[in-house]
Amino acid sequence: MSARGAIFPTRAGLLVATTHDLCTTLLRDPRFGRGSSPLSNREPGQPVESFLWMDPPDHTRLRGLVSRAFTPRMLERLRPRVEAITAGLIDGLSDEADLVSGLAYPLPVMVISEMLGVPPEDHERFRGWSETLARGLDPMLTDDLVSESGRAGREFRDYFRGLLTLRRERPGEDLLSALAGVEGLTEAELLATCVLLLVAGHETTVNLIGNGVLHLAGRGLLRHAADRPKQVVEEVLRYDPPVQLTSRVALEDTTLGGVPVPKDTPVVALIGAANRDPAVFPDPDRFDVARDPGRHVAFGLGIHFCLGATLARMEGEIALSALARAAPELELTEAEPPYKANVVLRGLARLPGRRGRLMP
Ligand code: HEM
User: Which residue lies with its CA nearest to atom 1 of ligand 1?
Assistant: First the structure.
């Protein structure tokens, strides 16, 4: 728990929930929702919001329609592709390489692009849009960032409108074709969903992989990612969650943790703090690949629980275990690799490493 208490007000007029108990209550309790919080970070100029920013009943309807296309079967079909893309990226790493730009960054964007059916020659353009849109998630937005992120969003939607026309004429096996076939989803809603999938699915997964390599290789524990990838990925998600916080607003006058919360007050759920709550995780500041981190809230909870959690876990497990097999002695060469300047998304700007002594 924070030294300032389980829930405390900030000068900006927000409340901040710092314990596992309060964060889980906040995310599950229908008295809190999206409302019209200034923290909602709605993408400027976007005609239709994605369902991430909606409350029921709109959220329920749209998430239901999208989940119909986002099936376990589609994910399982992706597995061999994720393995092949990972193998190609790892093969392409030189003996001294930046693990962020060489592996963590390209993998998720290639996966989500393939999933949506974006041709390989357009993957590079995706990276640019994705990076700009992800920076637009930061609550400390400058005017420049707002307009840049608005422009990236417009370009992205224009691009997808074109691709959608092609897929309507000749449907493929991809998610875009599946979404195009979902009845009741308007074109604007479909485009907003594509933007959401790119933004929610890219930088977050980059950070999972990057943070994982940092904590594992930095402690000489990388080999465990090959022995027990699932458990290792869960501990990385708990210890250094790629999404550090999210927020809700009170939809009515209410209380949280005994503190009055007037209607429309924004409340932040500090995921990073909830995942280190000693009441739930003994010795929480210890990175421990042998623990059971089952109750972490890295993917949120309740109605907005991450739609891509299965995909993200699959990518994390494949990337970290493949790296562990290819470079079990990987050494990190920068003492304190820098994090990117984003408050919500916690991830490394770079992570230089060297294949260890045992490599052929
Ligand atoms: C390690 C990687 C990831 C992390 C840590 C993560 C985390 C989260 C969190 C915390 C939320 C809930 C936000 C809230 O309640 O305000 C969320 C929602 C969401 N995520 Fe993820 N995510 C990851 C990867 C992905 C991927 C790969 C995709 C899809 C390709 C994805 C798609 C979504 C969507 C669509 C939502 C909105 C769900 C809703 O509003 O009903 N995420 N994610």
Answer: 205
